[in-house]
Design brief:
This protein is an alpha/beta fold and 284 residues long. 38% of the residues lie in helices and 20% in strands. The structure holds adenosine monophosphate (AMP).
Length: 284
Amino acid sequence: MHIVDSNDAVRAWVAQERAAGKRIAFVPTMGNLHAGHLALVRRGFSLADRVIVSIFVNPLQFGANEDFANYPRTFDEDRRRLTQVGASCLFFPDEKQLYPHGREASTRVIVPGISNILCGASRPGHFEGVATVVAKFFNIVAPDVAIFGEKDFQQVMVIRQMARDLFMPLHIVSEPTVRETDGLAMSSRNGYLSPDERAQAPVLYREIRKVADAVLAGSRDYERLLAQAASTIQQGGFITDYLTLRNTDTLQEATDETPDKLVVLVAAKLGRTRLIDNIRVVRS
Ligand code: AMP
């Protein structure tokens, strides 16, 4: 695996591969890699000849009281996993590469509307930080295709809209959520959970699964379904930020007129750890 830490070096590597006729896939991450990240890398190889993975804990997408300082940084283990899965190139820039004139002075990318609801409402500026850093990475790496996890459902929608609106010349592909055997969506933040919290955490998945299954079975009493699930999640010790049934294309509230595709989305805090999850529903 080729390892680079500067914009110039990654550009040189991509130029060389492209000159050899290779198609390039890109997987942006914040490191602390787990099987969910590795699934994105494998998907990359089904779409391209070379897969570049970036590891960068982006300060711009963290709020002032969030976990930027404590976010797990496990470079050696990440490098080992990426070597094992056969990634072609690891791009590990420092903040100076992405924000050479300081993060406050940087041009920002704002994707309106969708950035301000759900996670965007609870985490002001979060999606602006995400869109900004991903736009920078797209311009540095210039991949043919970029792969994102559906675990961050709203994030994929923000990136797709950005790429579409700014005519970015690449394909955006999403990959299903990889879960632990008890259903908990894999996340770097799961490592923050105490053993007791970890035992409680799968209730999130179980409850959104129940809502999705009930809708699939024909229930249209969304309010009651969501209220029941919220109550069980709360009994599990979570403080729910949102638990909602939305249209997959617009992320607007599901109504009886909503077309076929729906998604159940949840964000909730267990102790100091904020977890998110979602499940798509194909309406019967
Ligand atoms: P992160 O390192 O958390 O910023 O995530 C990097 C990429 O991995 C994003 O596109 C995430 O959506 C994706 N990802 C994170 N967790 C999972 C998971 N459990 N399954 C699939 N993709 C994931």
